[in-house]
Amino acid sequence: MKYDFDKIANRKNTGSIKYDFFHENGLAEDTIPLWVADMDFSAPYEVTEKLKDIASHGIFGYSDTKDSYYEAVHDWFSKYHGFETKPEWMVKTPGVVFSIATAIRSFSEEGEGILIQRPVYYPFERIIKANNRKVVNNALKYENGKYVIDFDDFERVLKNENVKLFILCSPHNPVGRVWLKEELKIMGELCLKYNVIVVADEIHCDFTYPNHQHIPFASICDDFAQNSIVCTSPSKTFNLAGLQTANIFIANNTLKQKFTKSIHATGFGGLSIFGLAACETAYRFGNEWLSQLKDYLYDNLCFAKEYLKRNLPNIRIIEPEGTYLLWLDFSGYDLEERHINDIIRQKARLWLDEGSLFGSEGKNFQRINIACPRKILKDALLRLKEALTDIK
What we know:
Layout: E1 32-33, H1 45-57, H2 67-81, E2 90-93, H3 96-107, E3 113-116, H4 123-130, E4 134-137, E5 141-143, E6 146-148, H5 151-160, E7 163-169, H6 181-193, E8 197-201, H7 222-226, E9 228-232, H8 234-238, E10 246-249, H9 253-266, H10 273-285, H11 287-311, E11 316-318, E12 325-329, H12 337-347, E13 350-351, E14 353-354, E15 365-369, H13 374-388
Parallel strand pairs: 1-13, 3-4, 3-7, 7-8, 8-9
Antiparallel strand pairs: 2-10, 5-6, 9-10, 11-12, 12-15, 14-15
Helix pairs in contact: 1-10, 2-10, 3-4, 3-9, 5-6, 11-13
C-alpha cells in the first residue's frame, strides 16, 4: 500500500489539544500548531480497520492481552533494535510519563535527587517537583551547533547530589541526539558506580535519520538491563497517543515488583481494549507504513533545512539525528525571548514550543514538529519568514 502523507486531515472539533484550543491559549483561529508531539497523519490502515471492528462489536468490557501481544512487541524490538526482551519483563501502563512518575515514587523518597539533562522534555521536571523530589541537572553542552554530554559534571552530581534515579531521554527530546553506544556506556557505568537506577525514556526510538541507530539502553549488557526501567510506547511511532498504551521493560524482578506495587497503589486496573488492540496491530503490520513515513519525514527535514538556509539564515537548525522535532536557535536575532514568542504567536500565527519550557538552557530556542503534510510545513515557514522580514 502506498500511503498518502500529503493528505491534510481536518482535526478541528475532535477534542484535539493541538487544534481545538487556540482561543484558550490566546491564539488566532487560523494558527498553525506545530508544538505538541503528535502527528497530523492517520495511523496505519490495519490499525484503523482493527479499531472499526472492535467498535462494531459494541461491547467494551474489561480486556487484557494473550501471548500474541507480547510476541508482536518483542518481534518489533528484536528486528528493528536488536533488543531481546522477555515476557516476564513487561509491564503495561497508560503512558511513558505515567511510568516515569511511578518509577520516581518506587525508587526514591521525598527530597532525594532525580537527574535530568536539560534542555529536556519538560514533563520530567514537572513530575519530579510534583512528587517532592529534587531536580538535579546535568546540562547538555551546546558546542559548535551540537549537543554533547558533560561527563565530568555527570559524575560530580551523581557523587554529590544524593541522586537515586537518572531519567535518560533517548533519543533526546528536544535536541535530537541519538546517543552513541560509547556515550550510553559511560553514563550506565557511572550510574552503576553510584547506585543510581536508569529510567530510559525511549519513546522516540523508531525515528532516527540516516547513519544514526538507536541503541536500547538495556541491550548493551546484562548489568545495564538489571539496573534500568526501559519505557517504550507505540504512541509516537504510530500516532496513537490518545489510546494511552505503553510497554515498560524491567529485567530486574526486585525492581519490577516495587514498580508494579506502586501502580497498584494508584488504583490503575488495566488498559483499554482499543489501546491494546492498536498496539499489537501496529507492531504486527505497521512496518511498511513507518518506512514510508520516515522517508517523508526525512524529505520534510531536508525541505526545512534548505528553506531556513535560503530565507531565514539567522535561524540555526540543530541537525537532528532522531525524532520528528526540530530544535531551532533564534539567538541570531538580537531579541528577547518574550519578543520572539510574540512574533511567532501573534504575527506569524504559529504555535511552537518555546525553548525555555525545556529549562533555562533552552532560552532563545523553539521546538517545531515537522510530522505534518508538506503544505502545512511550507505555509508555516512562509509565515515565519514574513513575520521576521526586516528584523535583524
